[in-house]
């Protein structure tokens, strides 16, 4: 399929989507920037540092003022274009806190944007007020990264990388935290949002159903890991090869990070322990 790059796609009144040309196994067809509002706009997740994508955002503004540039988190496929967009429009960068960490070992998905510099950091429940009474509400959703935010606009939720309809979310330590991610999924489960607009992939039109399924999937993966390490002590590559048969080799590092995140959560709960040779096993207390 031909991805609609650099084209402003109306989604519903007051919401437009623009797709950046940065496809990959982790971004699907690319990062989606959203413009919300009517006479005054907010740009959500301006995307990677691609001049043609910034130009497409500016064209989509069509002379209307940009009230803010809102970033869900600081991976390099989400926030770097905030600087060029701020320079072009004068709009402040508002949203997640700055964060620049490297994961243990090589990273398969996008690394952190070390130059991200927000003018204002939003805490959970704080808002961006714009366009004569419109409001963008920050919903703290740590897990994929510790600084991740979703943004609610009416009954629509812009979910960044926290929930995506086309793929599960990468959770890679040390900053990715599985326990925090599960709690954040539960936060969304308790909300009544009509639709999700993720940063990658199609809109989620049955969000409550999807979130319930995601929680179930993660619990199933947890039980699978527990069964594997109960059979014999295993290192992470052994667990990945057993739990993800036939996995695309490009995704193996991400799967290893996810398994490690699960193991750290299980260790905190006293269900597994690390042994010699970087091998993991069930604790005697867990049965």
Instruction: State the distance separating the first and last CA atoms.
Output: 50 Å
Overall CATH class of the largest domain: Alpha Beta
Q: Label the overall shape.
A: elongated
| Radius of gyration from the alpha-carbon trace, in angstroms | 20 Å
- Total separate domains: 2
Q: Per CATH, which architecture of the largest domain?
A: 4-Layer Sandwich
> What's the main sheet like?
7 strands, mixed
CATH topology term of the largest domain = Metallo-beta-lactamase, Chain A
Largest sheet strand order: 1-2-3-4-5-6-7
Strand content: 15-25%
Poorly predicted parts: none
As a percent range, the share of helical residues equals 25-40%
What is the residue-mean pLDDT, rounded to a whole number?
Answer: 93
User: Helix segment count?
Assistant: 6
* CATH homologous superfamily heading of the largest domain: Ribonuclease Z/Hydroxyacylglutathione hydrolase-like
Q: Care to count the β-strands?
A: 14
The assigned structural class equals: alpha/beta
SSE blueprint:
Blueprint lengths: L8 E4 L2 E5 L12 E6 L3 E4 L6 H11 L4 E6 L9 H9 L3 E3 L24 E2 L5 E4 L3 E7 L8 E5 L2 E5 L17 H12 L5 E4 L8 H25 L4 H8 L8 H17 L3 E3 L5 E3 L5
Parallel strand pairs: 4-5, 5-6, 6-7, 11-12
Antiparallel strand pairs: 1-2, 2-3, 3-4, 8-9, 9-10, 10-11, 13-14
Helix pairs in contact: 1-2, 3-4, 5-6
Can you describe this structure?
The protein contains 6 helices and 14 strands. The protein is an alpha/beta fold and 287 residues long. The protein has 2 domains: 9-205, Metallo-beta-lactamase, Chain A, CATH 3.60.15.10; 221-286, Arc Repressor Mutant, subunit A. The strands form 3 sheets. It has a 7-stranded mixed β-sheet with strand order 1-2-3-4-5-6-7, covered by helices on one side. A 5-stranded mixed β-sheet has the order 8-9-10-11-12, with no helix packed on it. Residues 30-200 form the Metallo-beta-lactamase domain. InterPro entries: LACTB2_WH, Metallo-B-lactamas, RibonucZ/Hydroxyglut_hydro, Sec-metab_biosynth-thioest, WH-like_DNA-bd_sf.
